[in-house]
Write a structure and sequence with these properties.
This is MAGE domain-containing protein. It holds the Pfam family MAGE. Keywords: Membrane, Transmembrane, Transmembrane helix. The chain is an alpha+beta fold. It is built from 8 helices and 4 strands; from the N terminus they run βαβααββααααα. The protein has a 4-stranded antiparallel β-sheet with strand order 1-3-4-2. A hairpin with a 2-residue loop joins β3 and β4. α5 crosses α8. About 20% of the residues are buried.
Length: about 210
């Protein structure tokens, strides 16, 4: 038996996407929010989505706990208790929590939800990894030596392999994110139709 904790069909949250070209999606232009809890929340779900995607798209609960423990966030976070944070991420569509029984043992796995695919996605994870390893400046700088380009190509190849792509490069992550945006739009449309049908059923039951 398998149970999937998906975003509620009556959830009124929205998935915001940017139509700006990638050249204008820079930190110098798009400043992060000044709200401390909101920026902490964004950082936490970006980190969790990153470790899930870098582990093949699914991550068992025990392994996620180990990653959170390394970040000193296995029990409490700046936003809320860790268990409540994960519940909120599932409710808002950033994560999907799967539960199934295997020989009497409960197995819990996390996957990236539709909102997480759009608002973070492969491109966001790749950018995070480049920042952590100090490679983002090399991506944006055309004035690099042959040795630096070779080193960067090797890094991009390993990053693409970790994210499950056959080839490296920004175009590959962009294509994955565009597919995720299309999937998220379809999911939102289904959720709105489901919510509308539920409201109509409630109205009919009143008569």
């Amino acid at each position: 038996a398998q149970k999937v904790d998906k975003p509620s069909s009556t959830n009124k949250s929205w998935i915001l996407t940017s139509t700006l070209p990638s050249a204008y999606r820079r930190l110098e232009i798009l400043q992060p929010t000044k709200a401390p809890l909101e920026s902490s929340y964004t950082g936490l779900y970006t980190f969790i989505i990153a470790v899930i995607l870098l582990n093949g798209g699914t991550l068992q609960e025990q392994k996620l706990d180990r990653y959170l423990r390394r970040a000193n966030a296995d029990t409490y976070t700046p936003v809320d208790r860790t268990d409540r944070l994960l519940q909120r991420l599932c409710k808002e569509g950033y994560l999907i929590r799967n539960r199934e029984m295997d020989g009497g043992d409960e197995i819990i796995e996390y996957m990236v939800g539709p909102r997480g695919k759009v608002e973070v996605g492969a491109r966001g994870v790749a950018g995070l990894v480049r920042e952590v390893y100090g490679k983002q400046a090399m991506v944006e700088d055309n004035d690099t030596t042959a040795a630096e380009r070779e080193q960067m190509e090797e890094f991009e190849f390993r990053l693409a392999r970790s994210l499950g792509f056959r080839k490296s490069g920004e175009a590959q992550t962009q294509g994955a994110d565009e597919a995720a945006e299309q999937e998220a739009r379809q999911t939102q449309q289904m959720q709105r139709r489901s919510a509308s049908e539920e409201e109509e059923e409630e109205e009919d039951s009143d008569y």
